[in-house]
From TrEMBL:
Bilayer-crossing regions: 12-42, 83-100, 112-132, 138-159, 196-219, 231-248, 291-309
Source organism (scientific name): Flammeovirga aprica JL-4
Main localization of the protein described in the UniProt heading: membrane
Location of this chain's protein in the cell: Cell membrane
Sorted UniProt keywords: Cell membrane, Membrane, Transmembrane, Transmembrane helix
Secretion signal, residue range per the UniProt entry: none
Family: Belongs to the UPF0324 family.
Topology relative to the membrane: Multi-pass membrane protein
Protein name according to UniProt: Putative sulfate exporter family transporter
One GO cellular component, as annotated: plasma membrane
UniProt cross-references to Pfam families, sorted A to Z: Cons_hypoth698
Length: 312
């Protein structure tokens, strides 16, 4: 009986883990860390295929995320707190750049972390990565930083909210402004109450619209001028998907399926991204990206907490 070669074993484990990311009970965060664990224990059987899957799945996942947004509802809710949302995003991106520069981080990495913190976690990083021409290593570092802090927020925010006696409205706004990923926002708000959940979800989806202008600006800044060549087509697809979901009769019936496809596509993409995070790359990057993520998150959380206490 022939023994399986190391490369065959790698392929089997890779395929099994990739298929598991498509199951309902595996979250995007779990997929990312499954990829990281694979990278630490095995070698990628086909690096070229892994890279192509990562790039294309992320773009298409962002497009399908658009089917989960309603332009009318998003604009209505967004207009009520547009100044707060804009100020929060602007301050986060500014502080993110400042902290990243002070820590001597790679420019692309600190811009990805800042974008993920400012807008909507992994989805924002997925959208910004092609616009910034980020490589898989830069993406994996940013994703890992954001998802670790997401996990902390899911547990810590309801406890902090109770400590400060935040109302349902206050907590809903705070969670939407200070927690990175939409899933973590929904999870934390659901623990706090039904009203907080409704407010947090709507505000967070409105913030997700900022993926579009921020990604376009990032893409244009890469070459210093606006042109069709620098425009990320998948972002336009995101806009079209949102408009279809909002205005085409019967389109909303397919929204749950599109949302599922988007999350599973992102989940598989994150697995392929995690597979590039080997020991040498982790040692090369060190702990500085996490320092940036923590410092930026503490600043944003504190300022937004102060704001919601005094404004709502």
């Amino acid at each position: 009986m022939k023994m399986k070669s190391p490369n065959q074993s790698n392929k089997i484990v890779y395929i099994v883990l990739a298929l598991l990311t498509l199951t309902p009970w595996v979250t995007p965060a779990m997929s990312l860390f499954a990829g990281i664990i694979f990278a630490l224990l095995f070698k990628i059987p086909n690096p070229t295929l892994n890279k192509n899957l990562s790039n294309n799945l992320m773009k298409w996942s962002v497009v399908f995320l658009g089917f989960g947004l309603n332009a009318v509802d998003a604009m209505k809710t967004g207009s009520e707190g547009s100044l707060i949302t804009f100020s929060s995003i602007a301050l986060t991106l500014t502080f993110g750049a400042y902290i990243g520069k002070k820590l001597g981080l790679d420019k692309t990495i600190y811009r990805l972390i800042a974008s993920g913190t400012a807008i909507c976690g992994g989805s924002a990083i997925a959208a910004m990565a092609p616009a910034l021409k980020a490589d898989q290593h830069q993406i994996s570092v940013a994703m890992a930083t954001v998802f670790i802090l997401n996990a902390v927020a899911l547990v810590a925010f309801p406890v902090i909210g109770e400590y400060f006696h935040l109302s349902q409205t206050q907590f809903g706004w705070w969670a939407a402004l200070a927690i990175h990923d939409t899933s973590a926002v929904v999870g934390a708000a659901a623990k706090y109450g039904e009203e907080a959940l409704q407010i947090a979800t709507t505000v967070k989806l409105t913030r997700a619209l900022w993926i579009v202008p921020i990604s376009l600006i990032a893409a244009f800044s890469q070459k210093g001028k606006m042109s069709l060549k620098t425009m990320p087509v998948f972002i336009l697809g995101f806009i079209v998907a949102m408009l279809i979901n909002s205005y085409v009769p019967g389109a909303q019936a397919f929204a749950p399926l599109c949302k599922f496809i988007a999350h599973k596509g992102l989940s598989l993409a994150l697995f392929t991204v995690g597979c590039t995070m080997d020991v040498s790359s982790v040692k090369h990057v060190g702990t500085r990206p996490m320092y940036q993520g923590i410092a930026l998150w503490v600043i944003v959380s504190s300022i937004s907490l102060y704001a919601v206490i005094h404004l709502f």
